[in-house]
Amino acid sequence: SQELEQSPQSLIVQEGKNLTINCTSSKTLYGLYWYKQKYGEGLIFLMMLQKGGEEKSHEKITAKLDEKKQQSSLHITASQPSHAGIYLCGAPPPLGQNFVFGPGTRLSVLP
Amino acid sequence: NAGVTQTPKFRVLKTGQSMTLLCAQDMNHEYMYWYRQDPGMGLRLIHYSVGEGTTAKGEVPDGYNVSRLKKQNFLLGLESAAPSQTSVYFCASSYSTVQPQHFGDGTRLSIL
């Protein structure tokens, strides 16, 4: 069973638009990590959230973890072509025996 | 600061051939991991190591072996390559299980 689900599976937006990607778990998370993968490259760590209600921002990307620690959202403001890629959420044990990754959300930003 | 370095970046093998993928990290991390990434399957853990001289099986270990003789290196071996092992392989490292993992750029492996 998929322990972390992401929605949407893929997203195409016009440059300048805002967007949100969601990551959901059926169990309480003990941390939630967001990564970005450019096509054909490795994963780049973006942000880590640990506390319920926590929110972190870096440049135009904001990530939040809900109070129940079962859902996280990643919001991009005024998207740019450089934001294109695959966004993955991940969670450390004990959600799984080892670190668990979501299936990813593929983002395309049209100039 | 190189971070996590994987070699080679690309490789094509014939069924039955063997090869070793190399991973090196310069961050003094205790934990190292090997993943494979396939379309529709996401990232799946093959093997991991919690320190020099230790290895453990992940989600999909069959057909692979690993070794961690030195803290900075984690090797992934395919003894007899099969077409089902065609994939992109990623190595990662971290200080602990709850710290972010740092990834290499991947090795694209095709088995014909």
In short:
The complex is a heterodimer of chains A (111) and B (112). By secondary structure, chain A is an all-beta fold.
Shape of chain B: globular
Task: Summarize the amount of helix of chain A as a percent range.
Answer: under 10%
- N-to-C SSE series of chain B? EEEEEEEEEEE
Number of strands of chain A: 11
Enumerate the spans of chain A where pLDDT stays under 50 for 5 or more consecutive residues. Answer: none
Strand content of chain B: over 45%
Number of helices of chain A: 0
Distance between the termini of chain B: 36 Å
Radius of gyration of chain B: 13 Å
Would you give an account of this structure?
The complex is a heterodimer of chains A (111) and B (112). Chain A has 111 residues and is an all-beta fold. In chain A, 0% of the residues lie in helices and 53% in strands. Chain A is built from no helices and 11 strands. In chain A, the strands form 2 sheets. In chain A, strands 2, 4, 5, 9, 10 and 11 form a 6-stranded mixed sheet that branches. Chain A has a 5-stranded antiparallel sheet with strand order 1-3-8-7-6, with no helix packed on it. In chain A, strand 6 and strand 7 form a beta hairpin. Chain A is globular and about 40 Å long. Chain B is built from no helices and 11 strands. Chain B has strands spanning 4-7, 10-13, 19-25, 31-38, 42-49, 56-57, 65-67, 73-78, 87-94, 102-103, 107-111. In chain B, the strands form 2 sheets. In chain B, strands 2, 4, 5, 6, 9, 10 and 11 form a 7-stranded mixed sheet that branches. In chain B, strands 1-3-8-7 form a 4-stranded antiparallel sheet, with no helix packed on it.
